[in-house]
Design goal:
The structure is a single chain. By secondary structure, the chain is of the alpha+beta class. The protein has two domains: about 130 residues, no CATH class; about 120 residues, Aminopeptidase (3-Layer(aba) Sandwich), CATH 3.40.630.120. Helices cover about 45% and strands about 15% of the residues. It has 14 helices and eight strands. A six-stranded mixed beta sheet has the order 1-2-5-6-8-7. Strands 3-4 form a two-stranded antiparallel ribbon. Strand 3 and strand 4 form a beta hairpin. Helix 2 packs across helix 3, helix 3 packs antiparallel against helix 4 and helix 4 crosses helix 5. The protein is globular, with a radius of gyration of 21 Å. The protein starts with 5 loop residues before the first helix and ends in a 7-residue tail after the last strand.
């Protein structure tokens, strides 16, 4: 396998990887080409996972981590390079399953998000959540615009009646939404573009054509209404959902999503360079607690059904 290839360089350019990260990845690619034992071992793992189907994704990552230890490449970096290599070879699989290039590129834009998180939080180009990508490779988790979705069965011991009368029960299908940290504001236009695309892709799984979307996220934490600015896109995103359940955390587990590498610092040392960071830093400093919530919405392709 040629590692330092035009395909890989184009892939990195499409997602505008930071120059310092792209340089590290390119240097790793060249090592794979110039050190035969290193490259052959990498390719054996990739072939076993992608083509021969003799190892699972988790086993592949463990093999890559072992290879990183032997070669001195940071495991976050080598996992990222491995995932990137395997990802850019998946386009035929998307096409074979009736999925467009747009869906392929929307889905794998997640790599840029995880790269930024790793650089911000760990100071290393790569990913510290490589295992997250299992659903990307079996095509069960896919990107449609700003958000990502996976068709999922509800497995909580909970029954909930939505305001529109729809009863949500254990075992029911819904689209589990993930909100990647792309930095793209959650405007009305951006949100509803994604909802419409997801409805089009998944409506056949819902007998009445009304697609149920759910997510568990810190973004839906109800206390946001007490301290976020009135014009916050997060509040508008919250308005899309019916709140089913929420929890208040003793510890601020999601602080890295807001403060990156500064997470965990005393409140007076937290960055306040965005309205969200200012609001959260002030809230925590005043004794406020953080949390997360599970919300549901139903869409019919044009609107949210209330």
């Amino acid at each position: 396998m040629l590692h330092d290839s035009d395909d890989i360089r184009s892939f990195m350019a499409r997602y505008r990887f930071p120059r310092e990260a792209a340089d590290v990845f390119t240097a790793t690619e060249r090592r794979l080409d110039n050190e035969p034992d290193f490259g052959a071992a990498f390719d054996r793992v990739a072939d076993g996972f992608l083509y021969e189907k003799t190892i699972s994704f988790g086993e592949a990552l463990r093999g890559i981590d072992a290879l990183a230890a032997r070669t001195g490449v940071h495991p976050y970096t080598l996992e990222f390079v491995f995932i990137m290599h395997c990802a850019q070879k998946l386009r035929p699989a998307y096409a074979a399953n009736g999925l467009s290039d747009e869906v392929f590129y929307d889905t794998w834009a997640d790599l840029g998000c995880k790269l930024k998180e790793c650089m911000d939080c760990k100071g290393v180009p790569g990913t510290f959540v490589g295992g997250w990508y299992g659903g990307f490779f079996d095509l069960s988790l896919r990107g449609y615009g700003r958000f990502e979705y996976a068709l999922t069965s509800f497995d909580w011991d909970l029954e909930y009646t939505m305001r529109c009368g729809r009863v949500f029960r254990p075992g029911d299908l819904f689209l589990n939404m993930h909100i990647p940290s792309s930095g793209v504001p959650l405007t009305d236009e951006v949100r509803f573009d994604s909802y419409r695309k997801a409805w089009q892709a998944y409506r056949r799984y819902f007998p009445d054509g009304k697609v149920l979307i759910g997510t568990t996220t810190w973004l839906l934490y109800p206390a946001h209404r007490q301290f976020l600015p009135e014009n916050s896109n997060i509040l508008r995103f919250m308005d899309d959902f019916e709140l089913v359940s929420f929890e208040i955390k003793d510890r601020f587990y999601y602080d890295w999503r807001i403060f990156g590498g500064d997470a965990g610092k005393p409140c007076d040392e937290l960055p306040r360079d965005t309205s969200l960071r200012r609001a959260y830093a002030d809230w925590i400093a005043a004794g406020g607690r953080a949390g997360a919530a599970f919300g549901l919405m139903m869409v019919d392709g044009e609107k949210i059904i209330r």
